[in-house]
Design goal:
The complex is a heterodimer of chains A (474) and B (174).
Chain A (H helix, E strand, L loop, with lengths): L6 E3 L2 E5 L2 E5 L9 E5 L5 E10 L2 E6 L12 E4 L5 E4 L7 E3 L15 E4 L10 E2 L4 E2 L4 H6 L2 E2 L6 E3 L5 H11 L7 E10 L1 H10 L1 H5 L3 E7 L4 H20 L4 E7 L1 H14 L13 H9 L4 E2 L5 E9 L8 H9 L2 E4 L2 H5 L12 E2 L2 H4 L9 H25 L6 H18 L9 H12 L12 H7 L19
Parallel strand pairs in A: 9-16, 14-19, 14-20, 15-16, 15-17, 17-19
Antiparallel strand pairs in A: 1-7, 2-3, 3-6, 4-5, 4-7, 5-6, 8-10, 11-18, 12-13, 20-21
Chain B lengths: L7 H97 L6 H16 L4 E4 L4 E6 L2 E6 H10 L12
Antiparallel strand pairs in B: 1-2, 2-3
Helix pairs in contact in B: 1-3
Classes of the chains: A alpha/beta (474), B mainly alpha (174).
C-alpha cells in the first residue's frame, strides 16, 4: 500500500459552490480522484481541477451542500479515477460515475482500469468490418452501422433522438455473436431517465446491457466522467470478454456543455462559443476509443447522439464531431412533422464505412445496389418536389409524378416504423424493393439487369424501355 | 257527377288502365330497387361491421399483447430488484462480519504487535513529529499539522473491503 491514498488532508480553506480549496498538499496532480470523509461519517468524491503550489482545487462530485470545512478529511488517490471492470457490469444500472442506483451492491470486477483509457497502438488496430444490425430499417438499409465504427446521430431539440437511441440500444445485434450494449445517458431529465430504464428493461434483465444515467441535476464533473466510464466498461467487455459492444452516448452536446463549465471553473481561455480550445481533442479522446484490435476478439462501436442547438450543424459540437466520426445519421424536423418515425433525412445521412459491413458476404448481395438506387431515386424525388412547388403538379410529367409516389412510399413503407418494432434486414430490403418498383424499370438504371430480371420477369430490358412509361411494370 | 261528355269515360278507360299499370310497375320497380338498396346497405353494413370487428380484434390483440408485455416487464423488473436487493443484503452482511472480526483483533494476543506496526507505519507516512493516539475501537490515528493518517482497525477493514474483486460475487452466484 502506498502513502498516496492513506494521508488525509484536513486543511480545507474554503468551499465555493461545488469546489473545495485544500491547502498544505504536496505531489497532487490534475484529474486525480479524491475521496472526502465528512465529520458525520459520510463520504463524497471529487476530482482535482487545479493545483497551485500547495493548494489544490477539488470539484466535489456530489456538491458541497451541508459540508463543514472544519470537519473534512481529503484523501488524494494519486491517480485518475479507476473502476472495476468485468462482466459484473452487465444488467446493472448506475449513475454517471458508475455507482449503482438499482438497489444492488457495488459493481465488482477482476481488475481495475483507469477511466481515461489505455491508448491503443495505431498499428494494432483492425479496420471496422461486419455490420451491427439495429433493427431500424432506415439505419440498417441506408446507413449500415459497422462493428468498430463511430457513427453519430445529429438531432435537434424536440426530435425523438432519445427514443431512437433507446430503440437501437434495445434491439441491436451482431449476427448471433456475443453482443452487449453500454448506454451512457448524460444530462437527461428524470422523465427521460425513467423512459430509458423502461425501454431497456428487457435487455438489462437478459444481462446484455449496462446503463449509466447522469441526470440534468447531477454534477457536471460527473457528466464529464460518464462517457469515459462507459467506454472503459465497454473496452473490457469487448477486448477481454470477446463481445461486440455498442456504446450509445446521449447527449454529447450536454457533455460538451459540462466540459465548458469545468473549463470555465479552471479559468481556461475560452475558444469558439466559450467551449475550451481542446474540445476537438477531448471529443476525439472519446470517439477514438472505438474499434477493433488485432489478435483480440470483440469490437467497440460508438453511437454518439448530439443535439444541434437551433438546428445549427455548424455549431462546434456537431462540427467537431463530424471531423472525427465516420459519417452521420441526421434527423429531420420536416419528416418528424409528417409523423414519420424515425425521422431520418436519408440524403443528409451517410455511413462512410457501410461498404465494410454491407453487401455480398456481409448482409445480402443486393444490399449496396438497392441502397444506392434508393438514395438516387429519393434525390431525384426531392428535385421533382421542388419543381412541383414552382410550377404545380399539373405541369409534371408522368415519370415525375412516379417519383413523388416513390417519395411518399419511401417515407410510409420504408422509413416509418414503430419505436418498439424490430425490423429484420430481410424485411427492410424487401420494403426497399417495393418502394423502388413504384418506378418504371427504365428509371432503375443503377440496379444490375440480373436483379431486375429476377424482380420483374417479362418486363422490357432497360434500353428498350421508353423514358416515361405510364403503365405499372409491377 | 262528371261533366265529361258521354262515352268519354269509356274512351279514357284504357288510358286509366295504362296509367295504373305504369304506376304499379313503377311502384314495383321502386320496391325492388328499395329491396336491392336495403340488401346492399345490409351487405355493406355487415362488411363494415366485420371490418370494425376485425380491427377491434386486432387492436384488442395488440393492446392485450402490450398489456402482457407490460405485466411481464413489471414482473421482470420486480424480480430483478428483489435479486439485487438480496445481493446487497448479502454484501452488507459480509461488511458487518468483516468489521466485527477486525474489531475483535483488539482483544487478540497479537494486538500489541499489530498496534506497534500501525504506529510505525503512521510515523513513516507523516514523519517522526506526528502525534499518534490510540483509537478507542482499535488501531491508531496520527496527526501532523493539516495531515492525518487513519490507521484504525475500522479504516483498515473498510480499505480491505473496497479492494475486493469479483470473488465477492461467489456469495450469490451458484
Amino acid at each position: 500500500m502506498t502513502a498516496r491514498g492513506e494521508v488525509e488532508y484536513t486543511g480545507v480553506r474554503a468551499l465555493h459552490g461545488p469546489l473545495a480549496v485544500v491547502e498544505g498538499v504536496s505531489g497532487v496532480g490534475w484529474d486525480e480522484f479524491v475521496r472526502i470523509a465528512l465529520a458525520d461519517g459520510g463520504t463524497r468524491h471529487g476530482l482535482v481541477l487545479e493545483v497551485d503550489r500547495d493548494i489544490a482545487v477539488v470539484q466535489v462530485l456530489e456538491g458541497t451542500a451541508g459540508m463543514d470545512p472544519a470537519g473534512l478529511r481529503v484523501v488524494f488517490s494519486g491517480e485518475p479515477l479507476r473502476i472495476p471492470v468485468g462482466a459484473g457490469w452487465l444488467g446493472r444500472v448506475c449513475n454517471g460515475r458508475g455507482e449503482p442506483i438499482d438497489g444492488g451492491p457495488p459493481v465488482f470486477g477482476s481488475r481495475r482500469a483507469p477511466v481515461s483509457g489505455d491508448p491503443v497502438n495505431p498499428v494494432r488496430r483492425e479496420p471496422p468490418s461486419e455490420p451491427v444490425l439495429t433493427g431500424v430499417g432506415a439505419v440498417d438499409g441506408l446507413t449500415t452501422l459497422v462493428r468498430g465504427q463511430k457513427l453519430p446521430v445529429f438531432s435537434a431539440a424536440g426530435l425523438p433522438h432519445l427514443e431512437l437511441a433507446a430503440q437501437i440500444a434495445a434491439q441491436a445485434t451482431a449476427g448471433g455473436e456475443a453482443f452487449s450494449v453500454v448506454f451512457a445517458g448524460m444530462g437527461l431529465t428524470h422523465p427521460d431517465a425513467a423512459f430509458v430504464r423502461g425501454a431497456l428493461e428487457e435487455r438489462s434483465a437478459a444481462g446484455e446491457l449496462v446503463v449509466l444515467l447522469n441526470t440534468a441535476d447531477d454534477p457536471v464533473i460527473e457528466r464529464v466522467l460518464t462517457p469515459r466510464v462507459a467506454l472503459t466498461v465497454a473496452e473490457d467487455l469487448a477486448f477481454s470478454g470477446g463481445r461486440h459492444v455498442l456504446v450509445v452516448m446521449t447527449d454529447m452536446t450536454s457533455y460538451a456543455e459540462a466540459l465548458r463549465e469545468v473549463s470555465a471553473a479552471r479559468g481556461e481561455v475560452p475558444a469558439r462559443r466559450a467551449y475550451p480550445g481542446y474540445l476537438y481533442s477531448d471529443l476525439a479522446s472519446l470517439y477514438e476509443r472505438c474499434g477493433r484490435i488485432r489478435g483480440r476478439p470483440g469490437s467497440v462501436t460508438v453511437l454518439p447522439v448530439l443535439t444541434m442547438p437551433a438546428g445549427d450543424i455548424t455549431h462546434p459540437v456537431p462540427d467537431l464531431t463530424g471531423y472525427i466520426t465516420e459519417g452521420q445519421i441526421v434527423l429531420s424536423g420536416e419528416a418528424h412533422a409528417r409523423g414519420i418515425y424515425p425521422p431520418v433525412d436519408p440524403l443528409a445521412s451517410l455511413s462512410r464505412l457501410m461498404r465494410k459491413g454491407a453487401g455480398p458476404g456481409h448482409t445480402r448481395a443486393d444490399h449496396l445496389d438497392v441502397a444506392a438506387q434508393l438514395l438516387a431515386a429519393i434525390a431525384r424525388a426531392r428535385e421533382v418536389r421542388e419543381l412541383a412547388d414552382l410550377m404545380g403538379h399539373a405541369g409534371l410529367s408522368a415519370a415525375d409524378r412516379r417519383y413523388l409516389d416513390l417519395d411518399a412510399a419511401f417515407l410510409e413503407r420504408f422509413v416509418d416504423q414503430r419505436p418498439d418494432e424490430l425490423r429484420p434486414l430481410e424485411d427492410t430490403l424487401e420494403r426497399a424493393w417495393e418502394v423502388l418498383l413504384t418506378l418504371p424499370r427504365g428509371q432503375l438504371a443503377m440496379l444490375p439487369a440480373a436483379l431486375l430480371d429476377a424482380r420483374l420477369p417479362g418486363s422490357p430490358a432497360p434500353e428498350a424501355a421508353p423514358a416515361e412509361v405510364p403503365a405499372d411494370p409491377a | 257527377m262528371s261533366g265529361l261528355a258521354p262515352g268519354t269515360e269509356a274512351a279514357l278507360a284504357p288510358v286509366r288502365e295504362e296509367l295504373l299499370r305504369r304506376a304499379h310497375a313503377e311502384a314495383a320497380a321502386h320496391l325492388s330497387a328499395a329491396d336491392r338498396e336495403a340488401e346492399d346497405l345490409l351487405r355493406d353494413a355487415a362488411a363494415k361491421a366485420e371490418g370494425i370487428a376485425a380491427q377491434a380484434r386486432r387492436q384488442g390483440e395488440a393492446e392485450g399483447a402490450w398489456a402482457a408485455r407490460a405485466v411481464l416487464a413489471d414482473a421482470r423488473r420486480t424480480a430483478g430488484e428483489c435479486e439485487l436487493a438480496a445481493r446487497r443484503e448479502v454484501y452488507e452482511d459480509l461488511r458487518r462480519q468483516v468489521l466485527a472480526r477486525v474489531r475483535a483483533l483488539r482483544r487478540a494476543p497479537e494486538y500489541p504487535a499489530l498496534l506497534d506496526r500501525l504506529v510505525r507505519r503512521a510515523r513513516r507516512l507523516l514523519g517522526p513529529e506526528a502525534r499518534v493516539t490510540e483509537a478507542p475501537l482499535g488501531g491508531c490515528v496520527a496527526v501532523a499539522g493539516h495531515r492525518r493518517v487513519d490507521q484504525t482497525l475500522d479504516a483498515l477493514a473498510t480499505r480491505a473491503l473496497e479492494s475486493l474483486g469479483s470473488e465477492v460475487e461467489s456469495l450469490w452466484t451458484p
